[in-house]
Design a protein that fits this description.
mainly alpha; globular
Length: 355
């Protein structure tokens, strides 16, 4: 959704204006669903970690290893591009961007944008990791409540004058944090209601999620919604979409064409983080080449083709850089960081394995 929406925006700016650019609403919805998924996965994988500083250090270290290297690579490449264009980023802006410190970027109309624009969502992601990491000092049964209260507290703080400070982590005190909380709620509900949830076929889930996405785009573009109403709509449909995916039944299809689609979707998912970070490096050049050649494809066809191209680009970067670097660094962490000793006196929460 992010790539599709940004492709339409690029098409309208570099090839020819199009009314379809209004579908750029989908980019925000895509990030919101990304936050819900992140809240679900990260909470689910930490719920049974024993409390203590060892768990905190291991969790935060692994999160940095997972997020930072490929983001730093993309940021440095984009900074080099800006330098070659005669518009080098400042040292302070580079430092804050690489360290996930939010700031108002004067080159982006004062919005919270790092040097690499798409990195704004990673500031929220790392902030969520920080809160959840701190909660690992607490007993397992208290973590969900603690993280929920911190997220809600920062969201409320964002509505006050204090939360509107011009720089620093106060910029993160917004409603966007609520999407992580929704993901945590799904994880909590799934762990307790797993036996009662239906096991839906993957094709049914894909169709249902597609209809939810279409419903969001239709309503958000047809109706005049306030920001609060827009977030309520996206939170409701996004949560339902993730819930549907949680109930998907895994299995290997007999038809080879279906298996090909399954492999493509899995590979696209593996490379999705690199796709998110690097898709803008492909959109602009392709659009400029088409404009110089006076080729004007239909905007929706251009956007769909760019989704495929950027997914392929993301998967290649994932295989050649992201997967290898993450594996090497995680191996280093495993050797250097102490193992967290489980506490037998504390009952473990029951978390089911993925289907």
């Amino acid at each position: 959704m992010v790539v599709f929406s940004h492709a339409l925006q690029t098409y309208s700016e570099k090839i020819t204006p199009t009314q379809w650019v209004q579908l750029e609403w989908g980019a925000g919805f895509g990030v919101q669903v990304f936050f819900i998924i992140s809240g679900f996965i990260i909470y689910r994988t930490t719920v049974n970690q024993p409390p203590g500083p060892c768990s905190v250090v291991r969790f935060l270290s692994r999160r940095v290893v997972r997020i930072a290297p490929v983001y730093w690579l993309a940021t440095l490449i984009y900074a080099l591009k800006l330098i070659l264009q005669g518009n080098p980023p400042g040292w302070l802006a580079m430092g804050e961007s690489l360290l996930f410190i939010p700031y108002r970027n004067p080159d982006e109309a004062g919005m919270m944008r790092p040097v690499l624009g798409v990195g704004w969502s990673l500031n929220y992601e790392m902030f969520f990791y920080l809160l959840l990491g701190l909660a690992l000092m607490l007993p397992k049964a208290a973590r969900f409540t603690a993280v929920s209260m911190m997220l809600l507290g920062f969201m409320l703080l964002g509505q006050s004058r204090t939360g509107g400070a011009d720089s620093g982590y106060w910029l993160l005190a917004t409603h966007w944090l609520g999407y992580f909380l929704l993901g945590m709620c799904i994880a909590m509900a799934e762990s307790r209601l797993h036996a009662h949830l239906p096991a839906l076929r993957g094709s049914v889930v894909l169709i249902a999620v597609g209809l939810l996405v279409g419903c969001f785009l239709l309503l958000s573009n047809r109706l005049t919604l306030t920001p609060a109403q827009g977030h309520l709509l996206s939170a409701s449909l996004g949560t339902l979409a993730v819930l549907l995916c949680v109930t998907a039944r895994s299995g290997r299809a007999q038809n080879r064409h279906v298996r090909f689609v399954q492999r493509w979707l899995v590979n696209a998912g593996d490379g999705s983080y690199s796709t998110y970070l690097f898709h803008s490096f492909a959109l602009g050049p392709v659009a400029r080449v088409l404009a110089k050649l006076h080729i004007t494809p239909p905007p929706l066809l251009f956007a769909a083709a760019m989704v495929l191209l950027c997914s392929l680009l993301g998967y290649v970067i994932y295989r050649l850089f992201e997967l290898r670097v993450t594996g090497v660094l995680n191996a280093q962490l495993a050797r250097r960081l102490p193992q967290a000793a489980p506490l037998t006196a504390e009952p473990a929460l029951s978390v089911t394995k993925p289907r």
